[in-house]
Write a structure and sequence with these properties.
The complex is a heterodimer of chains A (91) and B (420). Chain A is of the alpha+beta class and 91 residues long. In chain A, 24% of the residues lie in helices and 25% in strands. The chains are: A alpha+beta (91), B alpha/beta (420).
């Protein structure tokens, strides 16, 4: 099940310059894990060693913050769009 | 100038003074670092230097992140100084103090800025830095006050501006933005949706989003509130500050301002207790404080205090840390308490504040009622915005006596009024 992940500018240098990537996965965690396998350094920058996300990382599924869904366990439908963004804007 | 570089608040990685706001290595927020070694030594001389400065935030230019000096007649950006912000009144509020059983309360009335909120401080700094960096377009994600300020600064400086707001914003704030000739974009969603959109757009457009890619510079402007309070108190620190919390940036930067001046010997004593104020309908920071958490769980806002309606606060963890480290707190108040707070401030000080100020005043009342405040403390209440921008909050809260233009009619009405 392919999912489109949008990669923020700050991480493109460790994603071979890609602005987006298509990976497989049925939950947000699986999608991110697949992304981190493809781009190891990207994983090291936004995730802790246990796979959880660092505190200044926001992930959105079709525009909705995954913390309003089921977090990393949120199911991801085929063709969905997952967006990673820095959490340090606004106010 | 004293400004040195950008550094990550989390991992301390260093970056050049460009339009950057996120650490590439750990995704932490970037902040401005300074080298104030040149200012150390003669405190009296430093105070005179500040006092000899202009009657606006640029008197604190040594502590602000411009590399070319302040805009104005003596600066590189001489042709366009923009809208001078700051130097707002600090009013001794004895009647408010008396009502709350306190000895000394001061109201810092930041509604007395060019567009009637503290946002003119942060926008002045961000826009000046944006010009230094060569940007031609300024933009923001706003809950209203920032929209007014960015639009007005754009007009004053002749810069194109784009302002993104939630579609359900108060009419007064929409009108007080559009009038400046900005490109006003109403987004169908809440502030957090607007903020996400602007974060995405900032990667696509070569614009200075004041509170996204210029945020490290922008946030520094809030320190000037602390500098003014200390200077207006005769170079002394208050014992406690009550400050509204939306993203947590203002709250933490006020403390940073006091801290920088303590380090230079301009101020003596402990950092004030810092009390944050939120609306119960959007209280992710107050909830995390009460639950003993270090991070905030985002919420969907539902409150009349729209200027504080940020459900996903960027500086939440730092606001929590600051409240705990200074012996303060983060409290939340209901919409009813917010209305009562607006009325209390208006009727004891003559200052008419918007809903955010109602939140702050109501939290001060709550702290006083709870016995958290020692009667001998010197307390500063930070009022960030103007009541005329949120008129719905006071509509229907009092009676108007309509009469015929005759003495009899007036006397009849006065008798009624007394009876009421």
């Amino acid at each position: 099940m392919a999912v489109l992940v949008k990669i923020p500018t700050q991480l493109r240098a460790v994603a071979e310059g890609a602005a987006e990537a298509e990976v497989e996965g049925e939950t947000v965690q699986e999608v991110l894990d697949a992304l981190f396998v493809r781009y190891q350094e990207l994983g090291a920058r936004i995730a802790e060693e246990d796979g959880s996300l660092r505190r200044f990382v926001n992930v959105y599924l079709a525009g909705e913050d995954i913390r309003f869904l089921e977090g990393l366990k949120t199911p991801v439908p085929t063709g969905a769009e997952l967006t990673i963004l820095p959490a340090v804007a606004g106010g | 100038m004293a400004v040195s570089h950008l550094e990550c608040k989390e991992c301390k990685a260093e970056y050049p003074l460009e339009a950057l706001y996120v650490c590439d290595r750990c995704f932490g927020p970037l902040q401005v670092a300074y080298d104030h070694s040149r200012l150390k030594g003669d405190v009296g001389e430093l105070r005179r230097r500040i006092q000899g400065g202009p009657q606006n935030i640029w008197r604190y230019a040594d502590f602000l992140p411009l590399s070319g000096g302040p805009p104005g007649p003596s600066g590189r950006l001489a042709s366009r100084a923009g809208l001078p912000a700051g130097c707002t009144p600090l009013i001794r509020a004895d009647r408010l103090a008396e009502r709350l059983g306190l000895r000394e309360v001061w109201v810092k009335n930041d509604a007395a800025n060019p567009t009637h909120s503290f946002k003119d401080r942060v926008v002045s700094v961000a826009v000046a830095r944006a010009r230094e960096l060569g940007f031609e377009v300024i933009a923001c994600a706003s809950t209203g006050n920032l929209a007014n300020s960015v639009a007005a600064h754009g007009a004053a400086l002749g810069m194109e501006s784009y302002v993104f707001v939630p579609a359900d914003l108060e009419e007064q704030k929409v009108l007080a933005t559009g009038v400046y000739g900005t490109k006003l974009v109403a987004v169908q969603g809440n502030y957090d949706d607007v903020n996400r959109l602007c974060t995405e757009l900032s990667a696509e457009r070569d614009w200075a989003f004041v509170n996204v890619n210029l945020r490290p510079y922008y946030a520094e402007g809030s320190k000037t509130l602390a500098f003014e309070i200390a200077e207006q108190l005769g170079w002394e620190l208050p014992d406690r500050c009550v400050v509204p919390v939306a993203s947590g940036s203002l709250f933490t930067k006020i403390a940073k301002g006091f801290e920088e001046w303590r380090e230079l010997g301009l101020l003596d004593g402990e950092l004030p207790r810092m009390n944050g104020a939120q609306a119960a309908g959007c209280s992710p920071v107050a909830t995390a404080f009460a639950d003993g958490h270090e991070i905030c769980r985002p919420v969907k806002p539902n409150t009349i205090a729209k200027s504080l309606a940020i459900g996903n606060p960027a500086d939440g963890p730092y606001a929590l840390e600051l409240a705990r480290n200074t012996g303060g707190s983060i409290d939340a108040v209901s919409d009813e308490e917010i209305r009562a707070g607006i009325a209390l401030l208006a009727q004891t000080t003559g200052v008419f504040t918007e809903t955010a100020g109602g939140v702050t005043t109501a939290v001060l009342s709550k702290l006083a009622a709870r016995g958290d405040i020692d009667p001998d403390e010197r307390v500063v209440l930070v009022i960030t915005g103007e009541g005329l921008k949120t008129l719905d909050a006071v509509r229907g809260t009092f009676e108007t006596h309509t009469i015929d233009p005759t003495v009899e009619s007036f006397q009849a009405s006065t008798a009624d009024a007394v009876a009421v």
